[in-house]
UniProtKB/TrEMBL annotation:
Residues 3-179 form the Suppressor of fused-like domain. Gene3D superfamilies: Sufu, C-terminal domain. It comes from Crotophaga sulcirostris. Keywords: Acetylation, Cytoplasm, Developmental protein, Isopeptide bond, Nucleus, Phosphoprotein, Ubl conjugation. The lineage of its organism: Eukaryota, Metazoa, Chordata, Craniata, Vertebrata. It is found in: Cytoplasm; Nucleus. Residues 276-287 have a biased composition (Basic and acidic residues). It comes from the Eukaryota. The gene is Sufu. Residues 193-413 form the Suppressor of fused C-terminal domain. This is Suppressor of fused homolog.
Length: 424
């Protein structure tokens, strides 16, 4: 309402826990403002009582109470404001199982708890308000190794492991900023017996990320401006139409269901999930969805087949390429990078995905700034070998380039500054 912070309030409670369930005393934080508090269209568009209220959720956080603490620390409120600022600015919503890579101790201390997973709050059920439905997503602080395991496998799997280790969260997933060991150091069997087996069996259910990325069409000269929606690196990205943007958003949001015949998801106009995971499996999930009125007719979008492409990622995004290839494409799925600085999107698809506009005959295809790349299993295996050093980021020197001339594909890992300043 005109102030510098997106959240109107953050309530803080002293929660006595539940000794019978081995739940310690803790501070419980609840945000107000991601949902619609007023119903008068000042902050959120009022869409009726049946749909989501505002963004449809509020954030919660449970912080272990230290001995002698008489008042709750206030830094979790700042953390919530930071996450809410991202949601308001990007219109990307969060879902249970999502992860947020923060790369800094959540309380600005020396703690190993530097990232977050999100899950349903164990005490607070969804509520029906006069302005729509609100669910409560709890922030769970995790170590870097736990975040990586969630990316390689899935967030819900790691959350379940955290629940089984009392000092790492326990049944209510209470964050202890003084925790000095990861769950894999506390119980070494968890990595091999649960996570590694899960990755091998299930692959990754991370279907897309918001990222620093861009792509160039190398098959035509840059001065060719015939297509009004072409990508020109070195200039501001051209704007996608609203419908095209929603198509990308919905593809990201729904992810790929685990079916015997994987297909790209339906296209609806809904807010998108910035960090995306596969949703519950369904029998039918394709471009022919039940909400067909919201689908953009494919024939109205010009598909361009490209001969040669150059993909550009920052280091954090590039480090996820092996996950994309091994955890997604080798399991017959897809993976999308959606640019956080513009409309650009890059979707990798395997030959098992139906509904894609990239084909084996034309593996590189674009709808405006949305590029799809189809990779065969054989080429994926080769790329994984060539990209092996992406798994050791500490030995990295930027910029780094990988090239497959016979496939007419080039991948560059570039400093963040290239993406932060398009004219750099």
């Amino acid at each position: 309402l005109g102030g510098p912070d997106p959240l109107d309030y953050v309530s803080m409670y002293r929660n006595l826990g539940n000794p019978a369930l081995n739940v310690p005393e803790h501070w419980h934080y609840v945000s107000f403002g991601l949902s619609d508090l007023y119903g008068d269209n000042r902050v959120h568009e009022f869409t009726g009582t049946d749909g989501p209220s505002g963004f449809g959720f509020e954030l919660t956080f449970r912080l272990k109470r230290e001995t002698g603490e008489s008042a709750p620390p206030t830094w979790p409120a700042e953390l919530m404001q930071g996450l809410a600022r991202y949601v308001f600015q990007s219109e990307n919503t969060f879902c249970s199982g999502d992860h947020v890579s923060w790369h800094s101790p959540l309380d600005n201390s020396e703690s190993r708890i530097q990232h977050m997973l999100l899950t349903e709050d164990p005490q607070m059920q969804p509520v029906q308000t006069p302005f729509g439905v609100v669910t409560f997503l709890q922030i769970v602080g995790v170590c870097t190794e736990e975040l990586h395991a969630a990316q390689q496998w899935n967030g819900q799997g790691i959350l379940e492991l955290l629940r089984t280790v009392p000092v790492a969260g326990g049944p209510w997933l209470i964050t202890d900023m003084r925790r000095g060991e990861t769950i894999f150091e506390i119980d070494p069997h968890l990595q091999q017996e649960r996570v590694d087996k899960g990755i091998e069996t299930d692959g990754s259910n991370l279907s897309g990320v918001s990222a620093k990325c861009a792509w160039d069409d190398l098959s035509r000269p840059p001065e060719d401006d015939e297509d009004s929606r072409s990508i020109c690196i070195g200039t501001q990205p051209r704007r996608l139409s609203g419908k095209d943007t929603e198509q990308i958003r919905q593809t990201l949001r729904r992810g790929l269901e685990i079916n015997s015949k994987p297909v790209l998801p339906p296209i609806n106009a809904q807010r998108q999930n910035g960090l995306n995971h596969d949703r519950a499996p369904s029998r039918k999930d394709s471009l022919e969805s039940e909400s067909s009125a919201a689908i953009i007719p494919h024939e109205l979008i010009r598909t361009r087949q490209l001969e040669s492409v150059h993909l550009k990622f920052n280091q954090e995004s590039g480090a996820l390429i092996p996950l994309c290839l091994r955890g997604r494409l080798l399991h017959g799925r897809h993976f999308t990078y959606k640019s956080i600085t513009g409309d650009t999107a890059i979707t990798f698809v395997s030959t098992g995905v139906e509904g894609a506009f990239a084909t084996e005959e034309h593996p590189y295809a674009a709808h405006g700034p949305w590029l799809q790349i189809l990779l065969t299993e054989e080429f994926v295996e080769r790329m994984l070998e060539d990209l092996e050093d992406l798994n050791s980021p500490e030995e990295f020197k930027l910029p780094k380039e990988y090239s497959w001339p016979e496939k007419k594909l080039k991948v560059s890992i570039l400093p963040d500054a290239v993406f932060d300043n398009p004219l750099h």
